[in-house]
Amino acid sequence: MISLFLKDVAEKRNLHVKDDVSLKTLIELMNKNQQGVIVLLDGNKPTGILTERDIAEIVFNGVSLDDMAGKYAHKEVITTRGDRSIGYGLNLMIENNIRRIVVVSKKGDFVGVVTQKNMLRHLEEDFYRATIRVKHILERSINLISVKPEEPIYEALRKIVQNKISAVPVIHNKKAVGVITEKDIIELARKNVSLKSEVNKFIIRQAVTVSLDTTLVDVVKTMNNNNIRRVVVEDSKGAVVGMITLRDVLKNLEGGYSDFLEMKLKYTKEILNLLPEMLLEVSDTGKEHLIIWANEKFLNKHSRKVIDRPITSFIPAKTWEKIYNNLLRSNKIEEVRFKKGKDVYEVSGFFIKTDGKLEKGRIHLIARDITDDIRLLTTDTLTGIYNRRFINEFLINEIERSKRMNKRFSIAMLDIDDFKKLNDTYGHMAGDAVLKFMSNLIAESLRKSDIVGRYGGEEFIIIMPETDMKVSGLVSERVRKKIEDGAIHLSKKKSVNITASFGIASFPDDGISSDDLLITADDRLYKAKKEGKNKVCSE
Hints:
Layout: H1 6-9, E1 16-18, H2 23-33, E2 37-42, E3 45-51, H3 52-60, E4 79-81, H4 86-96, E5 100-104, E6 110-115, H5 116-123, H6 134-137, H7 153-163, E7 167-172, E8 175-181, H8 182-190, E9 209-211, H9 216-226, E10 230-234, E11 240-245, H10 246-251, H11 256-263, H12 269-272, E12 278-284, E13 289-294, H13 296-302, H14 317-330, E14 332-340, E15 343-353, E16 361-369, H15 371-378, H16 388-405, E17 409-416, H17 419-426, H18 428-445, E18 451-456, E19 459-465, H19 469-485, E20 487-489, E21 495-497, E22 500-507, H20 514-530, E23 536-537
Parallel strand pairs: 1-2, 4-5, 9-10, 22-23
Antiparallel strand pairs: 2-3, 5-6, 7-8, 10-11, 12-13, 12-16, 14-15, 15-16, 17-19, 17-22, 18-19, 20-21
């Protein structure tokens, strides 16, 4: 059963509305579907989701049920494709602490909703091997949250909302006399029942109980037979000691996943969310590598839409292929760098093999955004163009490339004329403005393959791959003319004009080493200055 597809078990009827309906209409539809959830659509695309818990909080905050539902569907929808297995869907629910998944087609159109109840119905046979009992999974460390029959309905709602739970048992003399749920309170609010009314007047659900020694198998049967999502737990004297929900049951599914849980990191995901690094987990389903969980640091940068997406939506496919092969060989990778858009990342991680029904393994990745680190190493902080260190390294690499490819290239060194006089006259802030102007103008004037950097002070350098002396001279002359014609506005009433002198050197005619080329270009720049400035010198 665990290999069934989600599209085979997803339910659609009465589970979706357009995003312009009222909360009251949405609640009525929620009552019809008995699933505790409604998906809001724009056309056929899911745009939001509202659950019983959301509605309970809305009621708690005194919002009018005549308001439009779309106004309150703030949460990003976690979706998954219908051709994923039930086992994968189970993992997705557990890892992201959700009670239902919105299922979509390959095009992103709404297919239906899979809830924990759906899961439990189809996974029941997988529990028959289980020996886990209620006492093994009951969280004794958490105090029992309950209400008394004489307390107001509002008190039950407060406990549900503030503790983020779906129901509370109603207890009298340590015995459970009923259960009141989010759904019950929402229905009472829809009927305009005063929330100051006593709970005992509106108990409509009897408490279905199990003992501490009840097996998980029998808990599953009880839930399925009674079509419920929770059972009340009693001790040997019949006193209520806790409540077990569908989520608790699913978390303790025996088999490959429980083996995986034993190998997981000892820190909880709440702690992982506090770390400065971006963390994510990838499920190896045997067919795909899907992002199944990410910490808040990662989600804040990339949004929740990354969940259920292939890891190649973040890491380039070729890079991921190398990473995955290394993980298979050694179970770990360290400091692999890749570029995504304008950002540069460094990832490390390890692989936990499970070889279970649910997945082949789980990949833990730590991603660090090193864009700023790289930028500090390679770019000039004032102008934003490349710095001297990067230019020198690039020049050496370009020489080696040109030798291998038997290609020519040229460099141009340029220096702002009378820059010291400008600084003395207008101040250093004006000087900085001139340097920024120069950097932008040069960068905008070049081809994508050309490289420009600040070589020091008011001196710049341009590297022009696969360009001979004649063409580089024409390019330099064009840049020189743009500098001469440009006006730099220092304030509303003050602007200045500047000029620059150029010296050009070409590989291999003027040298085959970086030192030879730089010295030649610098000598010709000095010659241009000596001959009156504001000119290009190539001899």
